[in-house]
Amino acid sequence: MSHHTYIRDLGANQYVDGVYAIQNCQLGQTKTGKPYIKCLISDKTGRTPGRMWNTTKDLFRQLPTDGFVFIAGQTQPYQGEMQIIMEKVEPHAPTDQELGELLPTTTFNVDKMFAEVLQVLGSLEHPALQALAGTYLADGELMDRFCQAPAAMTLHHAYLGGLLEHTLQLLHLAEASLPHYPSLNRDIVLFGLFIHDLGKCEELLWSQGFAYSDDGNLVGHIARGNLMLERMAQACQDNPEHPVKIPVPILRVLHHIIISHHGELEHGAAKIPATPEAIFIANLDNLDAKMNMAISATRPNTAAEQDKSLGGHFTEKIWALGTKLYRPDPTTVTEPD
């Protein structure tokens, strides 16, 4: 990987060959009925669309839907975004060194973020929620996975440490917003945000690339999160040193937060948010997820990325947001003469 060309450094009409992650690999069909491969090609610095026009169904069947491949091809600007037109693509088993280049990782310090989560949970005042938080935190394996897991496969915070980053961001947003809604129960909101996505620790895999586990495909993070909550509540009650029974109304509302945090039935919620705290959490979750997608697509982190012209002010359509996005900060755009 010593000569690996990062996605963020790709220029127009540049030859590319090397090992990359492939995501959402699909077989499409041209207007003339010929098969072609469409996918996302990524490494730890970003991702970009990939296309292979001259292909066969047999080649497509050899490729992972989500995994790692060796590719060779040419970059091509298209509608304001760089894409890779692949001439060659084949499955690849990455070395540990290659994995370090391919899997994106949070840019923030994981230990510091987790310490901030602990600080927020340490401020809970209700005894039952204090006990429940302590039981979750005492599960070292779960907390290790919480600190490592991505928040999603491809959409938002899709990088190692992304779940922790997303959760902490939500806690910060809640702490800043709660003074404006004094009737909301602070403990329920903060604890609900902490647990709302913990089922993703079982839903997702990330040691060999990002993928859904069998549990993720068959159960999913919402159902798993509720089962986890039941287990933790029972552990509180069975604690031999300091047993605490979680009141049913509290437990019921926490279950509701988990099953409703996607906001809409068509977006995966099992119930529409039906408490003030659940509505607050669902909307904060939606805000942070969409802002992460929007900023990642339009406002890159480095000056080099920001200066790179890809031939337009708009991204390709981002399906999760339902639109193309305008890239520039409008205060930096020069009006034409």
Portion in strands = 15-25%
> What are the low-pLDDT stretches, counting only 5+ consecutive residues below 50?
302-309
The strand order across the widest sheet is 1-2-3-5-4
Mean pLDDT: 90
Number of strands: 7
- Cα shape: globular
The rounded Rg comes to 22 Å
- Tally of individual domains: 2
Q: What's the helix-strand series?
A: EEEHEEHHHHHHHEEHHHHH
The main pleated sheet reads as: 5 strands, mixed, barrel
- Termini separation comes to 47 Å
Helical percent range?
Answer: 40-55%
Helix-and-strand structural type: alpha+beta
* Number of H- or I-type helical stretches: 13
Structural commentary:
A hairpin with a 5-residue loop joins strand 6 and strand 7. Helix 3 crosses helix 6, helix 6 packs across helix 12 and helix 10 runs antiparallel to helix 11. By secondary structure, this protein is α+β, with helices and mostly antiparallel strands. A 5-stranded mixed beta barrel has the order 1-2-3-5-4. It is built from 13 helices and 7 strands. The longest helix has 23 residues. The chain folds into 2 domains: 94 residues, OB fold (Dihydrolipoamide Acetyltransferase, E2P), CATH 2.40.50; 184 residues, no CATH class. Helices cover 42% and strands 17% of the residues. It is globular and about 65 Å long.
